Amino acid sequence: MNTLAAPVERESVVRIRDLTMRFGHKLVHRDVDLDIFRGETLAIVGGSGSGKSTLLREMVMLQEPTSGTVELLGKEVSGISRAERLRLRRHIGVLFQNGALFGGMTVLENVGTPLREHTRLSNNLIDEISCVKLSLAGLDPEDGLLYPSQLSGGMRKRAALARAIALDPELLFLDEPTSGLDPLSADAFDDLVMELKTALGPTIVIVTHDMDSLWRVADRVVLIGDERILATGSMPELARSSDPEVMRFFQGPRGRAAQVSA
Amino acid sequence: MPATLNVEGAILRCAGDWTARSLGGLERRLVRLNLPGEGSIHLDMSGVRRMDTSGAWLLQRLVGDLERTCDSVGIKGLSTAAAGLLDLVRETNVRPGATPRPARKGLLERIARSSLGRVTHSIDLLTFIGEMTSAWIGQIFRPNRIRWREIVVTLGDAGHKALPIVGLLAFLLGVVIAYQGGVQLRQYGASIFVADLVGLSMIRELAPLLTAIIVAGRTGSAYTAQIGTMKVTEEIDALRSIGISPMGMLVLPKLFALFIALPLLTVYADIMGILGGMVMAAAQLDIAFATYIDRLEEALTLDSYLVGIGKAPVFALIIATLGCYQGFRVDGSAESVGWRTTQSVVQSIIAVIVVDAAFSVAFSYLGI
Predict the structure, then answer these.
(1) Does position A214 have pLDDT exceeding 90, yes or no?
(2) Domain containing residue A222: CATH number
(3) Are B119 and B221 contacting, i.e. CB atoms less than 8 angstroms apart?
(4) Rounded distance, CA A128 to CA A125, Å?
(5) H or E segment at B328?
(6) What ipTM does this complex have?
(7) What band does B285 get if pLDDT is binned at 50, 70 and 90?
(8) Which of A240, B51, B66, B350 is 20 to 30 Å from A101 by CA-CA measure?
(9) Mean pLDDT computed over B19-26
(10) CB A197, CB A174: distance < 8 Å
């Protein structure tokens, strides 16, 4: 199924086997196999409703698959104990599509929440570390006093990213990080993701349909559609692909424009 | 493996995992640690197995503290990755101990703000009532604008779906009054007057009040939560942009539906309450149903009935108005929806009881 299989000796941090997901009668995907390797930036693309977000939710243990297995950092997630699950969650950061910042807290408190919950650090140190994370996410520490409802769309994404990296996760999941941002902010956000990648070195999984992001950020791209993985490979490889399904997705006007500018 | 730091003269030997999870102990020990205050200091980081941003930040803070008093501070044995992290946190414009704090407001300012808030709140409420009234008058002149479908749906939610709970509570209230009153009346051989007691107190006071309180908790809160959530998800703005007035679409149907439903529910509560009293009177005081109903006919007048039922529409207006008004005051967050819903229920119940008391005073003044 994987048209371009990556070398086997690399360590996979996420290993998906025969994953099937069904909501009632609606089949989302069937028998999906996917490996995500340590240190890479993998993008999952596909049309709206192709089940990208569902796949992501299954990977971060928010959705139980109908059948099949998901292995995170070498541990199979179905049927592990609550303590084990909690331990795994500490190594995972998730940026939700609309930020999902807690509305009743300031941005600084939002970023500090994982630290307060999972470490025994003092409040002062947590606030300072939260400021560092905000600054890494491209926000002023002063912005930490604002409430999420007072933030612009771009700032909200950055604040949410700061919260996602609060515990320096090994695995960072970004659900449509650039959706709803203007092209300049989206570019800046892509830059930010790449900077964080070099600085903190997490494995990044991005769900997106932003063509420019794909060209700039992703090492490897997985195209899903028709309830399965249609193609896997780097952007240049997929852009050259002669598979009609792949061409339909990447050779549209937007796909070509992104390729030209990349 | 927890992070550690040992002082060996001018050398500070660090070891363990300098990660957020393992730093807690070291951070607390650090203040008590007798750190050298002068000369050249060396930090030996070769024992550190892993380091994350939090660890790098603590190291940076430590170095900053030492540099203030010591001649020079050197770091050695840092892995490349850790050195990168240290540079990263150094480059951020965050300074230790300089986290932003919300500005503390003075006492006078807080008093002023809170008073101003109350005044604007009252003005807003009056404005809302004004807008609502003008929208209502507008609909009276153009009856084809009335949204019957919404009214019918809301009527169902507020009306017949509330029958079980209103009926049960009114019945039980009737039972309780009959029991409590019956015990007293029996001592005077006046057991039969339990019909007067239950009948009058239910239809004049308790049934309207009980129904209004149930509806405020059940329907008023739902109105606030619905409108509030619609405001958070920008559905209210969407309605406006399509050219549909939220007043006409959301508020007036609710107002109208409750205006019809609450009096009807009150009649139902009257019946169930009296029924409860009747059952209790038969069980405890041996008053036959027929005797009880005969007595009831003499005790209850049309006036008492109308006094009770007449209050219901007023209560309905209060509950619907406050419920919708609080819904429109929601701003952005989920927390605010919860807070406004609480406010709507609390204020509705208080207003209903206060108005009920005002009615009692007015009726006694008028001698009804």
Answers:
(1) no
(2) 3.40.50.300
(3) no
(4) 5
(5) helix B302-328
(6) 0.81
(7) confident
(8) B51
(9) 85
(10) no
Amino acid letter for position A143 = D
* Torsion of the alpha carbons at A164, A170, A175 and A180, rounded to the nearest 10: 50
Q: How many CA atoms lie within 13 A of A170 on its CB side?
A: 18
Closest in B19, B96, B336 to A128, CB measured: B96
Question: From CA B165, how far away is CA B215, in angstroms rounded?
Answer: 10
Element containing residue B172 per DSSP (H, E)? helix B163-187
Residue A2: pLDDT band with limits 50, 70, 90: very low
A121 located within any domain = no
Residue A66 DSSP label? S
- Between CA B33 and CA B65 the distance in angstroms is 13
Domain count within chain A: 1
8 Å CB contact between A190 and A218: no
Give residues 88 to 147 of B whose Cβ lies within 8 Å of A: 88-89, 92-94, 96-102
Q: What is the pTM of this model?
A: 0.77
Catalogue all structural domains in chain B, each as residue range(s) with its CATH number.
Answer: 4-91 (3.30.750.24), 146-366 (no CATH)
| Nearest in space to A163 (alpha carbons), one of A117, A120, A211 | A117
Q: 3-state class of A65 per DSSP?
A: coil
- Enter the tokens of residue B324: 């919708």
Print the domain residue range for A62: 7-91+207-262
Q: What CA–CA distance (Å, rounded) separates A52 from B85?
A: 33
DSSP 8-state code for residue B19: S
Backbone angles phi, psi at A29, to 5 degrees: -150, 160
Residue A44 lies in a domain: yes
Residue in this structure with the two tokens 């109208």, named with its chain if needed: B256
CB atoms within 10 A of CB A83: 8
- Per residue in B29-43, pLDDT (tens digit) is 887 877 777 778 888
Distance, in Å, from the CA atom of B63 to the CA atom of B75, rounded to the nearest integer, reads 9
Phi and psi, residue B279, nearest 5°: -60, -45
Residues 6+ apart with CB under 8 A from A178: A185, A186, A189, A190, A208, A210, A213
Structure tokens at B64: 């900053």
d(CA B112, CA B115): 5
Q: Minimal Cα–Cα distance from A223 to chain B, Å? A: 31
A201 contacts in chain B (CB < 8 Å):
81
Residues of A in contact with B332 (CB under 8 A): 103, 148-149
